[in-house]
Design brief:
four-stranded parallel beta sheet; alpha/beta; globular
Length: about 130
């Protein structure tokens, strides 16, 4: 069971989903019905490029998201073309930013701090409903 099973008793807030498959889309709709906001990202997109960024994304999940978080401008452009009505914002990728710092390259061009969420939850990770 996930945090979303308690959406009815939690104070109203924002749920962050790390993937946007059909299973996540169902959970997103559930928490939205409970009065919460939904932000979503596609953590799996890190290893993909171009139209491959759409591989793990289900239309229901995008529709249930109040905000979709893209990793960079190219990612946002691909998502915007596929889902023109979606609210999409560039959030970067903390893993990539930390790797850039480790090898001495410039970190993200945006200086604001960010929060790195540990999103490894193998109970549903990798589960894709047709």
């Amino acid at each position: 069971m996930g945090l979303w099973t308690n959406e009815g008793i939690l104070p109203k807030g924002c749920f962050l989903f790390k993937t946007m498959n059909s299973f996540q889309g169902e959970m997103m709709n559930r928490v939205r019905q409970g009065g919460h906001l939904v932000a979503s990202a596609d953590e799996e997109a890190l290893a993909l490029t171009g139209d491959g960024w759409l591989t793990n994304i289900h239309a229901d999940a995008v529709a249930a998201s109040d905000l979709v978080l893209a990793q960079n401008e190219k990612h946002r452009n691909v998502l915007s073309k596929a889902y023109p009505t979606a609210a999409i914002s560039i959030a970067g990728n903390a893993r990539v930013d930390l790797l850039r710092q480790a090898v001495g390259r410039a970190a993200r061009p945006i200086a604001q701090p960010y929060i790195l969420f540990n999103t490894n939850f193998p109970l549903i990770n990798g589960y894709v409903k047709p």
